[in-house]
Amino acid sequence: MPCQNFDYCFNNNSDELRGDSRKKIAIVGGGNWGSAIACVVGKTVKAQDDVFQPIVSMWCRDSRKFGDTTPSIAETINATHENPKYLPGRRIPSNVIATSSLLDACESAHILILVVPHQGIPQICSELRGNLRDDAHAVSLTKGISSTSENDVIRMQLISEDIEKALGVECSVLMGANLAGEVADGKFCEATIGCKSLENGEELKMLFNTPNFRIRVTTDYEAVELCGALKNIVACAAGFADGLGWAYNVKSAIIRLGLLETKKFVEHFYPSSHHTYFESCGVADLITTCYGGRNRKVAEAFIKSDKPLHIVEQELLKGQSAQGPPTAQDVFEMLEIHEITEKFPIFTSVHKIFTGEHGEQELYDSLRNHPEYD
Amino acid sequence: MPCQNFDYCFNNNSDELRGDSRKKIAIVGGGNWGSAIACVVGKTVKAQDDVFQPIVSMWCRDSRKFGDTTPSIAETINATHENPKYLPGRRIPSNVIATSSLLDACESAHILILVVPHQGIPQICSELRGNLRDDAHAVSLTKGISSTSENDVIRMQLISEDIEKALGVECSVLMGANLAGEVADGKFCEATIGCKSLENGEELKMLFNTPNFRIRVTTDYEAVELCGALKNIVACAAGFADGLGWAYNVKSAIIRLGLLETKKFVEHFYPSSHHTYFESCGVADLITTCYGGRNRKVAEAFIKSDKPLHIVEQELLKGQSAQGPPTAQDVFEMLEIHEITEKFPIFTSVHKIFTGEHGEQELYDSLRNHPEYD
């Protein structure tokens, strides 16, 4: 029987259509930054429940050993709405439902937020491959660089490109001056989305943007992603400077010269990039990370002690990792292959301090004799 | 009788010529930064005594009241080679000879280094006018903005332009990430010279450059000078943020948005400027000043107390001045005349916090609603 009440039918039908088209969000990663971004996204989807499904799923790795009967991180988050291991004291909204099953979290998601350490990406992609919606897209918050080999020639590759190739979905990036605890607390900050298609970029802006978490979108995704990755190397240099008792002027010079090495790196590998160093992912993220980030902290402690890096990390980060040292190694290897290490003395010296080949004097000389002064 | 020994005569003659052409240096200003730059220049002229005369004269204002029989600052520096009032604990080289007479210091100088607060420039220029060598040139280390009136229209003017008009000599600028104490200690840092003629710029680079004080030269002098002036306003915003207990992400956003307001200001008033924000005078000086400078310190104390600004300055700076508040006022007046205050919410809010018209909320809103997010 046809509906007699046109308004009711129209709205009902419209609601159904709207219900079908609402996007489901999955967060892949339950660490410090993943938990902070859950605080943001849990709220934005509820405030826009005509666009997004209000339940956000969040995959957290179950790192318990066999026989361990304590609750998993996912169980703890669902019971307490807090991640006491990686983001203690901050409330994760109750519409964020955590799970230890990667497929359960992701298979019906329209948007995947990937926020795991670089090292975890290959296994996650291999588990997800072939198990996602055809119309899904992703955004990577992961920092690092990758590489690919073609006819024995090793080429730079972005982590977002790794993800796209592995999953067959478009992958944007979100980077910015975002210390996780401050973001979770709802304090004002900014971030940059680097996207391939502006359609996905604008949808991601809707998902992340709040009055206190201000998002700008650019299609210069290579520079956005590399700024996010390379700033961790510069932050290690800043941490060394702090540990060695150097001063404000030196640290500012490190940040400036580090930004210029970042720019040169992007220009070398992605000459068509139009650069966005004045965005939050550029100069702002670099400053935050060089003053308040974990890479700075680890590097400062490393250069002041005789302990190996993994011990310093264990003591300071309680299970989280610092991406600066492995990124410095990956970048150094890429610079060596392309025979351009001498153009990047800070990146090079940071790597060599971690391997023990460089000391204080070499780092100092990498500044004083920087090619920028030629 | 003609000289029988050609080599001797030639060399003797050459020596004489060289002796005549050696440049005499005068430093105008005996404050914190003037004393620190005396530490640098005192050494560089000695190391290059074929180019520069080894005696540097340094004018220090005699601020004693009538009847005060304590030694003047100039007398103290000449007796102890230290400026205990403004740069205690650092040795000023003994070839720097201080004097309370401006004319004695400057009238035979080839290069004048002007390093006094903005407020002191008019009187100094009026005393020096007509009393300098015809071939002299100057370099200003003074931070601030000026204005000029033509047919009742008020126009922006640089302080270096004020100096050029008043003295009839070319005036370059030197700006950079240079906390004075660290420069005096010989710690590594960088600076930028903005010059009109590269000939004078390169001569100034010889005068200031050392293995630890690295100078780069550009002809983009408007941007260099304005970066040096406007960073003090941004540093006040950073100080307010510190005083209000805001966090790293916010402070990085302030620095980034402040840099963008600086860029916009330069583009508005000097559209032909080719911009040098990646130089030390740009991003590096901004970071140093927002973390370690006196404007940050004064602003932090001001917003945490009920005391008027001049009391806070007296308590913290011991007779030195903070250029941020007067520069914020001068800039605000210029923005009002040109009806563009709304494009510069941070500059505007900093001024209005000092006048009591704005509080914490307005500053916060100047960030969250910044036109950069439009």
From TrEMBL, chains A, B:
Glycerol-3-phosphate dehydrogenase NAD-dependent C-terminal domain boundaries: 220-361
Protein's recorded name: Glycerol-3-phosphate dehydrogenase [NAD(+)]
GO biological process, one term: carbohydrate metabolic process
Residue ranges constituting the Glycerol-3-phosphate dehydrogenase NAD-dependent N-terminal domain according to the UniProt record: 24-198
Binding site for substrate: 143, 294-295
GO terms assigned for molecular function: glycerol-3-phosphate dehydrogenase (NAD+) activity; NAD binding; protein homodimerization activity
Catalyzed reactions: sn-glycerol 3-phosphate + NAD(+) = dihydroxyacetone phosphate + NADH + H(+)
Enzyme class: oxidoreductase
Pfam families, per the entry: NAD_Gly3P_dh_C, NAD_Gly3P_dh_N
Organism: Caenorhabditis briggsae
Keyword vocabulary terms for this entry: NAD, Oxidoreductase
SUPFAM superfamilies assigned to the protein according to its UniProt record, in alphabetical order: 6-phosphogluconate dehydrogenase C-terminal domain-like, NAD(P)-binding Rossmann-fold domains
Residue positions binding NAD(+): 29-34, 180, 294, 323
Family the UniProt entry places it in: Belongs to the NAD-dependent glycerol-3-phosphate dehydrogenase family.
This enzyme's EC code(s): 1.1.1.8
InterPro entries per UniProt: 6-PGluconate_DH-like_C_sf, 6PGD_dom2, G3P_DH_NAD-dep, G3P_DH_NAD-dep_C, G3P_DH_NAD-dep_euk, G3P_DH_NAD-dep_N, NAD(P)-bd_dom_sf
Active site annotation, chain numbering: 231 (proton acceptor)
